[in-house]
Amino acid sequence: MSERAVELEVLRYNPETDSAPHFQRYAANCREEWVVLDALNFVKENLDPTLSYRWSCHMAVCGSCGMMINGEPKLACKAFLRDYPGVIRVEPLAHFPIERDLVTVIDDFVAKLTRVKPYLIPKEVRSLDAGEYRQTPAQLKRYKQFTLCINCMLCYAACPEYGLIPTFIGPAAISLAHRYNQDSRDGGRAQREEEIAATEGVWECSFTGACSEVCPEHVDPAAALQQVKIKSTIDWYLAHTMPWLTR
Amino acid sequence: METISCDVAIIGAGGAGLRAAIAIAQADPGLRIALISKVYPMRSHTCAAEGGAAGVIKADDSLDHHFNDTVGGGDWLCDQDAVDVLVQEAPKELLQLEHWGCPWSREPDGSVAVRPFGGMKKQRTWFAADKSGFHILHTLFQTSLQFSSIQRFDEFYATELLVDDGRCQGLTAIEMRSGQMRQFRARAVIIAGGGAGRMFPFTTNGAIKTGDGMALAYRAGVPLKDMEFVQYHPTGLPSTGTLLTEACRGEGGVLLNKNGRRFLQDYSMGPETPLGQPVLKTMELGPRDRVSQAFWHEQKKGNMVPTQWGDAMLLDMRHLGEKTINERLPLVRDMSISYMGVDPVTDPVPVRPVVHYMMGGIHSDIRAATPLSGLFAAGECACVSVNGANRLGSNSLTELLVFGKRAALSAIEYLATGARPGTDAALEAAGQQAQARIRELFQRSGGSESIAGLRREMMQTLEENAGIYRSGEGLVQANAKLAELRRRYANIELHDKSNVYNTDLLQALELGSMLDCAEAVTVSALERKESRGAHQRLDFVERDDARYLKHSLAHYQGSGVPRIEYLDVVITKSQPGVRDYSGDHE
């Protein structure tokens, strides 16, 4: 099996001792099939126990290990060394404050997620004794893709608008609101609309599509944003031209 | 030290912890809930479960079938009153998730679909493609966001339970962001801290599965039950240990040796079933312990396929076709391509058994109560026991829902029947001592041991001596080695002396948890001189109901060797019998 000495350039920042972030170089003996996370683990175990980063599942589903790798937002567990022939630069996710080294402060995302009410607000209340809500495979398909968000926040790091306007609710939270809006069991769109159709909601999006390009789960947040915009626009016209329909 | 007061503190915010939190919030909105987890809830390992959750729903199925499959699958070490509770409450819990929006896969008529799973006589596994655990976790997490009485403490690592007057009264925890210790005063505590698969080097478990919840209870005097029963899942990727769900076989995938033979037929799981027409409860739909053991024997015979990561068998799904694989097993396909460079649509995928689940855990009863008053436990960290000596696939997601909710309701009941507050001074002193212990570790210098080094030795010891087959000789060595490692653990020194997000400290504490759990595993395994379910002894090859139809209970003895006691299994209606996974079973 082939080995490779991988040169890593990792952003370090300890708020207790560093006045500013700086880069530190490590040479890690890696196996060719490894991912960047494996290389970081090699460093942590063998070279520098002080390096801090989040990770857990190593299968791209827990969403912990989002980082900038050579300037692109990636999950470190799905960034293969074979795709990075030279020095690999690893930095914390862009647009988030750094807590320590590669660990970011994600309070902003968690607060925004909570604000968009990402839970089922039933259209008709049904007791458990009445069994399941019927939902055909076609109805499931209308929102299924948007359920796949793992909250890794790569889309926030890629989003130019979020970088400029931090109040923008952002791709993942809007996708998850849209996920419930599109669910045949849900009747909560009007409640979510207050958040996501506001100025800091969908209208900040300039549709560069960067969010969908970096999404490791192919959620396509850009599609969610555009669908929300269209629906909100229709709502607005209906309310202003045929108000009797929306009463 | 800052003190946070609440009514119920929950340690762990995965499936069981979230289910418990929601149940409390719904039952009594006036109760203050502290939901404490070392990671954000959506990072919890419930997210990695793939195949689904078992619950009787179809007309051809019955609660008796689910009961019998579970009890036989567990080699009669399950408590049958607990299994009754599990199978009775399962359908309602899975339906509750449906009402909360879980995107279960559906039949054409819009009803919930089920799929076949190993060791199950009927199709009863509810699934959401092959990301069932992920969807359950996110449905619970998102649902929990509507309850203001659930106060989350994300990235807080619990270090000790506070016990006074014989009752659990709270805990201490380190806030990772600041490095500060907090004292939680709680009238009741629920532990939902997950399993401990990271004791082993080759595991499907994420990095966070370090047995912290088990160790908390164990050190507070609650025994760990049936710790010798460690489940190997038969089909992990040999390179990373990444799980390929049992649903691969439920959908019709088959296991081959290097000669292309479906070798399970040579291990009492035959005769061979037609390709693409899986038959329930036989061949590839046998239980995990038997399939993993068959791999071990084939490997001894030299029938396995050598890979650069060791011997593997082949999981062949080609005959399922691209459409089925994409619809039902999209994650499996993605991971096989990404991590192995093999597309299951065109090639068989090399796989091998991998440590997956702890049947054992914190001694708890059907109310999810532990022997320590005020302390409850649910999920993988607990041992009720519904899983006995071998868990059936798709029972664990069900278990964390059923017993997560039960823990909540039992805690509420406990509060109502007189959970007296503890003595302030005693709790304060206990909190100060907990803080002093962390401070000592933090400030220690001149330590000669490395965290990574001890961890490697622990993993190697378990891999060599506590795997699919064990021997008395190997276990004696393992016990000696683990006692040595626990001694040497006192000499570790932190390299990172920062307060902010100190993962060196976190890993040191996690290693301490794992070492304690590991010793409980190997000491319990040495004492159990029989073979049952996932515990196979080369020197005691038969099941011995006369002596060991009992749960083992490992009691913590500080730096000494755990004391093992036994407790009778609850048998209500199913007497121990023969586990028959041949195609001839009724």
> What string gives the helices and strands of chain A in order?
EEHEEEEEHHHHHHHHH
CATH fold naming of the largest domain in chain A: Fumarate Reductase Iron-sulfur Protein, Chain B, domain 2
Number of strands of chain B: 22
CATH superfamily of the largest domain in chain A: Alpha-helical ferredoxin
CATH top level label of the largest domain in chain A? Mainly Alpha
Residue fraction in strands of chain B? 15-25%
Taken from the alpha-carbon principal axes, the silhouette of chain B is: globular
What is the typical, i.e. mean, pLDDT of chain A?
94
Indicate the low-confidence ranges of chain B by residue numbers.
Answer: none
Number of helices, counting only DSSP H or I runs of 4 residues or more of chain B:
15
Largest beta sheet: strand ordering of chain A: 2-1-5-3-4
Account of the 3D structure:
The complex is a heterodimer of chains A (247) and B (586). Chain A is an alpha+beta fold. Chain A has helices at 36-47, 107-115, 137-147, 154-158, 160-164, 171-181, 189-196, 210-214, 221-241, 243-246; strands at 3-12, 22-31, 66-69, 72-75, 88-92, 98-100, 103-104. Chain A has 2 domains: 3-104, Beta-grasp domain (Ubiquitin-like (UB roll)); 107-246, Fumarate Reductase Iron-sulfur Protein, Chain B, domain 2 (Orthogonal Bundle), CATH 1.10.1060.10. In chain A, 37% of the residues lie in helices and 15% in strands. In chain A, a hairpin with a 2-residue loop joins strand 6 (98-100) and strand 7. By secondary structure, chain B is an alpha/beta fold. Among the domains of chain B are: 233-354, Succinate dehydrogenase/fumarate reductase flavoprotein, catalytic domain (Flavocytochrome C3, Chain A, domain 1, Alpha-Beta Complex), CATH 3.90.700.10; 441-568, Methane Monooxygenase Hydroxylase, Chain G, domain 1 (Up-down Bundle). In chain B, strands 1, 2, 6, 7, 8, 9 and 17 form a 7-stranded mixed sheet that branches. Chain B starts with a strand and ends in an 18-residue tail after the last strand. Classes of the chains: A alpha+beta (247), B alpha/beta (586).
